[in-house]
Write a structure and sequence with these properties.
6 helices; 6 strands; single chain; 128 residues; 34% helix; alpha+beta; two-stranded antiparallel ribbon
């Protein structure tokens, strides 16, 4: 069962050294205790899934936002958290991707397609 969710690339102001030497969960907790000034919660990439609000050509059930809320690009299917993290580390933190095998082995789940036929005619994201 898949429920409504959003996955955001949250930029933490962390150095590469911190990411190499400290467990990520510990760093997130440390920065959370320090206050919200250290976070930028409106990340440049956000994947959303909300089947209940889906409306063809207005609000795709599965979509990705880039930088701003109004940018809603259709996606063929929901993206699992493991798939999202793999995408982010492979494309934005490739050195860490190569250094930590556990990132490459994160579990992924494949969901059914949610894209409407008219949205498939638009530029959209799709993968196997």
């Amino acid at each position: 069962m898949l429920i409504v969710y959003g996955i955001i690339l949250v930029h933490l102001y962390l150095s590469k050294e911190e990411l190499r030497t400290e467990p990520l969960v510990d760093l997130v907790e440390l920065y959370a205790e320090a206050g919200v000034d250290y976070y930028c919660f409106r990340g440049p990439i956000r994947f959303d899934y909300d089947d209940e609000r889906a409306e063809e050509l207005a609000h795709p059930a599965t979509h990705v936002h880039f930088i701003q809320e109004e940018c809603r690009t259709p996606v063929t299917r929901p993206l699992s958290p493991g798939s999202f993290l793999k995408f982010i580390f492979f494309n934005f933190y490739h050195e860490l991707w190569n250094s930590f095998k556990f990132i490459q082995e994160l579990p992924e789940e494949r969901f059914d397609q949610t894209i409407f036929p008219e949205e498939e005619k638009l530029i959209h994201f799709s993968w196997r």
